[in-house]
């Protein structure tokens, strides 16, 4: 069964360089994304309430984006990506989150989860 791709754009008041630190380093991801984050090479281990999920770092572009692929979904095209977008005119900064839900019914729930995580990030960095 194909997963459903979705995208979220969330405005955030922070500099792209600071944001990049929070989306790319295990210690900073641990502050807002998961309870604990470890990395060994390209493999990141995310832990939520004692449950481990492993993801491979696919793309890392400084001050631009980071993309992970869950190891458990290696047989499909899914991934999750956090991209920093800066409006050329207004210089407003947004995070563009691309992710996949298992089916259409889970898209809203997945978006809500991301919004909650980004709210936690905003709180962490004081944005």
Automatic annotation (TrEMBL):
Coiled coil: none annotated. InterPro entries: START-like_dom_sf, START_2. It holds the Pfam family START_2. Residues 2-127 form the START-like domain. It comes from the Bacteria. This is START-like domain-containing protein. It comes from Polaribacter filamentus.
């Amino acid at each position: 069964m194909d997963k459903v791709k979705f995208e979220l754009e969330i405005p955030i008041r922070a500099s792209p360089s600071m944001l990049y630190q929070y989306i790319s380093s295990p210690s900073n991801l641990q502050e807002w994304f998961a309870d604990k984050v470890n990395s060994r090479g390209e493999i990141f281990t995310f832990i939520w309430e004692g449950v481990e999920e492993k993801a491979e770092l696919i793309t890392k572009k400084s001050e631009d984006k980071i993309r992970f692929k869950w190891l458990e979904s290696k047989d499909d095209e899914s991934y999750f990506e956090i991209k920093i977008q800066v409006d050329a005119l207004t210089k407003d900064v947004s995070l563009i989150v691309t992710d996949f839900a298992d089916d259409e019914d889970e898209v809203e729930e997945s978006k809500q989860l991301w919004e909650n995580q980004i709210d936690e990030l905003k709180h962490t960095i004081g944005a």
